[in-house]
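User: Hi! Is it possible to get a structure for several chains at once, not just one? Here's what I have:
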Amino acid sequence: MTTTDWPLWEVFVRSRRGLSHTHAGSLHAPDAELALRNARDLYTRRGEGVSIWVVPSSAITASSPDEKDPFFEPAADKPYRHPTFYEIPEGVKHL
Amino acid sequence: MATAAAAQDTDRGTDHGTTARQGVFDAAVAADERIEPRDWMPDAYRATLVRQIAQHAHSEIIGMQPEANWISRAPSLRRKAILMAKVQDEAGHGLYLYSAAETLGVSRDELLDKLHTGRQKYSSIFNYPTLTWADVGAIGWLVDGAAITNQVPLCRCSYGPYARAMVRICKEESFHQRQGYELLLALSRGTPEQHAMAQDAVDRWWWPSLMMFGPPDDASQHSAQSMAWKIKRHSNDELRQRFVDICVPQAESLGLTLPDPDLRWNEERGHYDFGPIDWTEFREVLKGNGPCNEQRLDQRRRAHEEGAWVREAAAAYAGKHSGTSETGATRA
Amino acid sequence: MTATVTATAALALGDDALVLSHRLGQWAGHTPVLEEEVALANIALDLLGQARVLLSMAGDEDELAYLREERAFRNVQLVEQPNGDFAHTIARQLYFSAYQHLLYDRLAEGGGPFAPLAAKAVKEVAYHRDHAEQWTLRLGDGTDVSHERMQRACTALWRYTGELFQPVEGLDADWPALEAAWLERVGEVLRRATLTVPEGPRSGAWTAGAGRQGLHTEPFGRMLAEMQHLHRSHPGASW
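Assistant: Yes, the chains can be modeled jointly so their relative placement is included. Here is the combined structure:
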């Protein structure tokens, strides 16, 4: 049974031009060509997309939830990266 | 992201770690945040989700059969197109759900194997036969109607991939119920024979549809824990009542009657009262003694077995042509 | 071109699409892998959409689909062949889609009454052809078992491919050129799939006629009986 178990692919769909691809879901396919076609049939049959990426799930390296704090918390205390951090006198425009 | 290997907790060994993680998990659920595949989760939460999502996926796949039974006999080309698209959606929904289950560290092949060997269940409603064309309408109106009543709250389920699959499914399913209602309306307003066909279908599907919400709250095995985990948001009886309240006026507009002499508006409760459900029948069908249990499972098994050579061929071709033989290895 | 000629040609094209759509619809719940449930249904729905436009050019779509007798159907015999195993379904689709793509491409350019439909359908058909070609490659060049099954299917259906290029009045096409292009395309795919291009005759030995003249094969009568039964049981009813 496991010898014919097709690998898993992640599907990313661009819903229309000007937008980036977003994760739509996953599916099984024996190879990249059929993965692309299966993705087209499964995830865009109501006209949801204009472009598709498929990626073997095994090729994705993800950050670990265990590292969530060291990964993401340090970014939370740097308010000077955001425009709202700065006070500008009233009436100054185009800034 | 459906990376099965990553779904496994890396160090669930230490008691101390587990207690702390349980705290993080509980807090996330309490705050109505979503649990994602790589987050720590209690084993029982994972097992409950696998069971529920798999059963849901199996129901979509087995649920194709009773309606596909009428594709080749659909009485107009418009109806034929609608029915084909609907049965196709059910396959698609099965696929979305298997994907969601796979984020929990099980493979689709494992789940299909459990379905084929009777170790996982699918909704009992699909063990009833579709005897006439009107049954296609009754399934759309009542069976899909009951399913939607069940599913809409699942869009807010605490497990992210399941909730997202349900959002997509609910959006796509909105046409399923309407086409069933429209189909029945055409029959109800048609010739006397057509009207009788519609009434007969509603007579046969009404009670099984009410059973789709599961046993009464006081007899439901998993309900309390699932509600605490926010996998489930409303009790079986609550949803069943909501469904009955919705259906009564819809049946009136259809010009059809619901087969329950006890059905009447209760001013005090603000709901319709309805008669007792035959739970013996429910349990019998669940046990495998429904009219079509064997037939449905046989067809599924046969499709899978007879298709093995095709799946093997594609895997072999991929092995020959990709250079890197990915088959199998990727799922380790 | 007279209205009758257009209607007759519309019936030929419409019946091809209707009958093949019906056959593909019979796969629902039986496909070798769940992804193919969605894929085959997409093809069936495209074809049914084409059939409805084409039949409406010839009359009332439902009257034509449900109330004609077998001899009045003008589809080629290839599309009425039963699904068989997945290899037979793919071989049938390969042969038909390659033909349909060449013809519709021509009709789309021709500017005649079929140009608008053909221009839309040719894109759908390109995908059907691609699906069939992808699977032909995988079955032909997959395992020994799949190779043998695919070869058997390609050979079995070969005799129904000559009829595809029988000129249809009202369709402006260079039929011998279409046939040459078809042989080249299909031959190339079969060779890439490590399959042998069948050498048998491309039409039956019994030449009393063919699908375009209303003469069909045994399985077609049964298919129509099933398809038409409900509609015919309620004369005049609307659905």
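The interface with chain C takes residues 6, 27-30, 33-34, 37-38, 41-42, 45 of chain A (CB under 8 Å). The two ends of chain A are 63 Å apart (CA to CA).

User: Great, thank you!
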